[in-house]
Automatic annotation (TrEMBL):
Protein name: lysine--tRNA ligase
Presence of the UniProt keyword Isomerase in the record: no
NCBIfam families cross-referenced by the UniProt entry: lysS_bact, PRK00484.1
Organism per entry: Prasinoderma singulare
Enzyme Commission number, as recorded: 6.1.1.6
Amino acid sequence: VGDIVGASGSLRRTNKGELSVDCDTLAVLTKAVRPLPDKWHGLTDTETRYRKRYVDLIANRGSMDTLRKRAVCVSAVRTFLEERGFIELETPVLEAMAGGAEARPFQTHHNALDMPLTLRIATELHLKRMVVGGFERVFELGRVFRNEGISTRHNPEFTSVELYQAYADYEDMMAITEQMVAHCAERVCGMTSIDYQGQPIDLAPPFRRAAMHDLVREACGVDFRAPELLEDRDAAAAAAAAALEAAGAPPRDVRAAAAAPTAGHALNEVFESLVEPTLVQPTFVTCHPVEISPLAKPHRSLPGATERFELFVVGRELANAFSELTDPVEQRRRMQAQVASHAAKRAAAKGDVELAYDVSVDDDFLEALEYGMPPPRGGGVGGGRGDPV
């Protein structure tokens, strides 16, 4: 069982209509020297399935179907963007400084140049440099790497698509994102209504839109837009910790909220713990605090908030995008604040390896902004996050 054979002869159909070969010659093309998994029970050991994907593909046709659907999805994304005038570019995988997200990078060393390098954690900053250079619609489908925990929701290596369009804002980005998600669902599943673990999911636009602070207020009754919390880090952190404790959140979440370096971080801790898991149907969460959105443009009508959104489906973040910040002076201030915030979180975490990395100001990117970047919208979709959906 498992040998690959070649047969030659004439084709015919049996009485039951099965296409068959009247065999004249039969030859063994490849001899299988290892036994295949049990025909009826297949390959059930999870560790073996993950480490030996080739055996998994032979034994489990569902795994083959998943990879085929993923290939269709990637092709659909590329076609969708190209039909709308976006140009696909390739940006560096090896970088002197990891940027575009806050995540622990993989580190390596370039022997010829005798310098440390990191694998990219996002493609954002290099694509923005292309917008500065004159490309008004760009995207990249590529692998990014984050040296963090591994689970069914996070993988150290995953595919993302990031796209940027000049002279547009986050409202335009929400529209193109929901259209792209619906397009991929139709290409892969033949419809926009899908089933996920027994739960019907409607991916037809328009998706629900809700501000982060409104969702948190509905979940725990605390209004983080109130002046006494918006402008007071200590009060916001205390309110967040109390709300999480009252809701029965894990002690780690309560401690993280109490140690939040800013009022915006405190709001985000409550959102991630209480609200995020409840967002089953597609939902654009908007109006993120400026403290957790260092690359986003300030909101035009909400002080302290940004023109940013995240798309959640079945409790998972599928996309993150915003109207891009183009002011180099404000961008430097935001990056410096991000460095300070990360240092505070790292100190409070007391040796947590997830935070054991440095965050730096990217002076080269700031110099690019000083040449003038057309106001773009931009964002990314994590392929590994959307595949399960």
